[in-house]
Design a protein that fits this description.
Length: 948
């Protein structure tokens, strides 16, 4: 079924939630799609229609975002409000401003949610804070241009209907805002400095976005039917019901904020906005589904649309792109008047549309004017499109640097397009593309500091290989590369900047002269100290020739005249504030060159304020910053006004504090939700998050890391080449011997040879062995296998079938070794322990006299504890399932240790070999509950209250 459904009815039928595309005039109605209750299957259904006598039994959606399933509960996500932000070739581009999340797992919940959504949609006036331009009767879904984002009135925000249908209190404190909104920064951000909040002019001057960030009314309609109503689920599905995650309501709220009120997802029914307008493939081919034409790198809802595309419901698959789309018109004169010319007033370079409104979708060959143009004047349209990559996607301190496949965090492709307002073929179209992305090295930064120190990870070779893959991919996609590095040459950023420079230099050693990657290191903070951001012109002067050599793409009369030869890859630490200032400077220079080709000399214009350009780029910077750091961009006042003063510095301080709060509190769950929606992890990620309120990086293969660690430990630790290696495993262990529990527990490597076992404590950031302990197999006296519970703060921690481990008891002897890596020319041998050094529980009988020594004094018994990591994790995407359970893995290891150790035992003739393995609780559930400290319980409860 080619094409896309423009408008869709969503209603509950007897046997499922039905999505029915509306028919355009003169067309046959589309075949509807039904989502069955109790599962995520999608099937076709004809002749379905809502009861027209009950207007609250259905609501009209403007597109399907996708279908999500968590704990066997299924939810449909649809677009209920949109706003047109641009037009390309007369075809509209929209931003999603509101979504509905409708439960599909029971008829009762579905009907109730549909009714609430329908009532809210019908009760909201078209002039509400969240603008909807659906009042048009245009059946094709092309609407007149909506107004740009406006300041949200406090009264409108305060009167959001709560879950009970009662208007919320119009007054609230900052604390109430933070607790209720959980870091969504609605009124909290608006009222940071004053009771009345920032006015629109103040926000624009201070570099703050005017986009409403509060949760819209619809965002409170669907989550109510999330965790409740299990009885109705059982009516629809008799199979056992998995208890929903306690985090499910937060996930649903996050989905609504992410897709709706964040104003960061864009779409078009007729265009492929993931491609340049100069690309012939940007205009969608109506004979094939749009989701098959877009670039997967920028297709953000591909995973959650899969239930529809898998069953052929292609007309419902509407691709979304995260990033920014903005558009402005301006006028320039090829023969500008002199300063004393009476006609000088008409030369003001301003928007043709008042209040920076977005240009409408004019019929081909016409130009909408609000000013009469001189014969030498010409109207232009500038379009700015930023496309955020789905690879290594996420939030600031949780996604840094590069992954093993060469993808970097916060990778954004930004394209600036210059055209005529009506896009007529006779007028040339100019396109200039830049990219930004995190430094392509393995590194991390803590979220608990305003100025965190970057910590390099992994070996130099691993960093080189990943960076090489990254630049090879960029070269294949964009051509020639020019690196622009804006980090500090002194201070905490210097080491990672130096390593970046050295890595690029090493990559260049294997390339010919034409393929080499130029590296320009511009210390932005040093060059622009004293808030003199105009000094960025120094960087522009340095790169001017290279920038002009790369050029831009030009298309005229439907033919490609010239193609951009390469791109500038710009980065700072976050690729936000400094990067946006510099990219806007490069883009303005290229715009002047493009206008000069068209006969316009910008330097000769009377008014060169070009507020339309500065505002467009500042809005772009705010959008990218919100999507990565949850706040508007810093230095936005300079980008907008080309001026910098103390007020901008104070605003940046407030943004820094907000970023610190978000990084410490809100980002962890949001990151888990993003990974889940992109299909990088399974729904089990929320169970894992509930354990420790943290997230893992799905781009880092845990299995590969563990395999490398085992291999490296074997090479570094096993000194005797005659020892036969039998296996290696990564297990969880206390951070010291002779204890069963520590805070925190850590992952370590256990090696087994035919002569000994080795406990290797590993530095996972640096890929180095920190210390190791060698235990001869002959000295092992006992191996205890059983339940091993080290925490009781979550249900998963208390699952006795999954929390298992073993304890190896042995008598220290002369052949046993303990060494610690001192990062110097020598290693340090740990002091020998005597019986008096051991805790009473660790002492006991053993094979006295085997290793010699004083027979009258029994040697100490030393214990090493190991716990199995969870076999089934959220990062097992696309796998059939874990190969072994936790207990099976422990049994395998212990059986192998026992077999090899038994061969080393000294047994008198006629005696049987003693069995080493015994079953019994290491730490039982009851013991764990008794021993879990109040501080640990309080700490986890407090984190859960704030984080979740």
């Amino acid at each position: 079924m080619p094409g896309l459904a423009r408008k869709i009815l969503v209603f509950a039928a007897v046997d499922g939630l039905v999505i029915q595309p509306l028919a355009s005039k003169g067309q046959k109605p589309f075949q509807s799609a039904r989502i069955k209750y109790g599962d995520a299957s999608v099937s076709a259904a004809r002749d379905q229609a809502p009861d027209s006598t009950k207007p609250d039994s259905w609501f009209e959606a403007l597109g399907v975002i996708g279908l999500i399933t968590v704990s066997r509960l299924t939810y449909l996500v649809t677009i209920t409000r949109r706003e047109q932000v641009a037009q390309v070739f007369g075809l509209p581009i929209y931003v999603v401003t509101q979504v509905a999340v409708t439960p599909c797992s029971s008829q009762t919940e579905a009907e109730e949610s549909v009714r609430k959504t329908a009532r809210l949609l019908r009760s909201e006036p078209s002039s509400s804070a969240i603008h909807d331009d659906e009042s048009s009767s245009d059946e094709d879904g092309e609407m007149p241009i909506g107004t740009p984002d406006e300041e949200v009135d406090d009264e409108v925000v305060d009167k959001v209907v709560d879950k009970g249908g009662v208007p919320a209190d119009s007054k609230s404190s900052v604390v109430q805002d933070v607790i209720r909104r959980r870091g969504s920064y609605g009124r909290f951000a608006q009222r940071w400095f004053s009771r009345s909040g920032w006015t629109a002019d103040q926000r624009r001057t201070m570099g703050m976005s005017n986009s409403p960030t509060s949760t819209p009314p619809l965002a409170q309609s669907a989550p109510q039917a999330s965790a409740a109503g299990l009885s109705s689920l059982q009516e629809a599905d008799e199979s056992p019901v998995v208890p929903p995650s306690a985090l499910l309501p937060k996930l649903l709220r996050t989905i609504q904020v992410l897709f709706g009120s964040s104003h960061s997802f864009y779409f078009s029914y007729d265009l492929d906005i993931t491609r340049s307008p100069t690309d012939d493939a940007s205009i969608a081919n109506p004979s094939s589904p749009l989701h098959t034409q877009v670039k997967r790198t920028f297709f953000w809802n591909r995973h959650i649309l899969q239930p529809f595309t898998d069953v052929g419901q292609d007309a419902l698959a509407l691709p979304l792109m995260q990033g920014f789309v903005g558009q402005r018109t301006f006028v320039a004169d090829s023969q500008p008047p002199q300063a004393d010319d009476p006609g000088m007033e008409s030369m003001e370079l301003a928007n043709l549309s008042p209040s920076s409104s977005v240009p409408s979708s004019p019929p081909p060959g016409t130009v909408k004017r609000s000013l009469e143009l001189r014969p030498t004047e010409k109207s232009y349209l500038i379009t700015l499109i930023s496309r955020r990559s789905t690879k290594r996607a996420g939030l600031r301190y949780l996604r840094r640097g590069i992954d093993e496949d060469g993808y970097t965090a916060n990778f954004v492709e930004t394209e600036q397009v210059l055209s005529s307002p009506s896009w007529e073929a006779s007028s040339p179209i100019y396109s200039f593309t830049q990219i930004r992305g995190s430094i392509p090295l393995f590194f991390t930064q803590t979220a608990y500091s305003l100025k965190p120190v970057p910590v390099l990870q992994h070996s130099e070779e691993a960093n080189y290989n990943a960076a090489k893959r990254h630049f090879e991919r960029l070269s294949a996609s964009y051509g020639t590369l020019q690196v622009v590095n804006l980090v500090e040459k002194r201070g905490v950023e210097a080491p990672i900047g130096t390593q970046y420079q050295n890595t690029v230099a090493r990559i260049n050693e294997g390339l010919d002269d034409k393929a080499k990657i130029p590296f320009e290191w511009f210390d932005f903070h040093h060059a622009c100290r004293g808030m003199k951001f105009e000094n960025v012109s120094q960087l522009l002067s340095t790169l001017k020739d290279q920038l002009e050599e790369l050029g831009s793409t030009v298309k005229s009369n439907g033919h490609l005249v010239r193609k951009q030869q390469g791109v500038l890859r710009t980065n700072c630490m976050d690729c936000l504030d400094r990067t946006n200032v510099c990219q806007s400077s490069f883009a303005k220079h290229m715009l002047e060159l493009q206008l000069k080709e068209d006969g316009i000399d910008m330097s000769a214009q009377i008014d060169q304020e070009t507020a339309w350009f500065n505002t467009l780029w500042a809005d772009n910077g705010d959008a990218v910053s919100k999507q990565y750091a949850s706040t508007a961009a810093m230095k936005g006042d300079y980008t907008r006004t080309r001026k910098r003063d103390y007020r901008g510095a104070l605003n940046d301080l407030g943004i820094s504090l907000t970023r610190l709060y978000s990084g410490m509190v809100n980002d962890y769950f949001s990151q888990a939700a993003i990974d889940f929606l992109l299909g990088n992890v399974t729904a089990k990620v929320f169970e894992e998050f509930e354990m420790d309120m943290m997230t893992k990086d799905p781009a880092v293969s845990v299995e590969k890391m563990r395999e490398r660690a085992v291999e490296l430990c074997q090479k570094r630790v096993v000194a005797d080449v005659s020892e036969e290696f039998h296996g290696g495993w990564v297990l969880i262990t206390p951070n010291a011997a002779n204890v069963l529990k520590s805070w925190p527990m850590e992952e370590a490597v256990l090696l087994l040879t035919d002569a000994a076992l080795y406990l290797c404590r590993f530095d996972w950031d640096l890929d180095k062995v920190s210390s190791f302990e060698r235990v001869t197999l002959a000295s092992i006296t006992n191996i205890k296998v059983g339940t091993y519970i080290t925490s009781t703060v979550s249900a998963a921690h208390m699952d006795e079938s999954r929390n298992v481990g073993f304890v190896v008891s042995y008598q220290p002897g002369k052949s046993d070794i303990r060494r610690r890596n001192t990062r110097s020319l020598s290693t340090k041998e740990a002091p020998k322990l005597t019986a008096s050094d051991e805790p009473p529980s660790a002492q006991g009988g053993g094979f006295a006299g085997i290793f010699g020594g004083n027979a009258s004094k029994e040697p100490a018994i030393r214990k090493l504890a190991f716990k199995a990591p969870y076999a089934d994790s959220s990062m097992s995407v696309g796998e059939a399932g874990p190969g072994q359970t936790e207990l099976q893995k422990i049994d395998t290891i212990c059986s192998e240790i026992e077999r090899l150790a038994s061969e080393r035992q000294l047994v008198k003739e006629g005696e049987e070999r003693k069995k080493l393995v015994e079953r019994g609780d290491i730490i039982s559930l009851d013991a764990a509950k008794r021993n879990t400290g109040l501080l640990e319980q309080l700490g986890h409860s407090l984190k859960k209250l704030v984080w979740a």
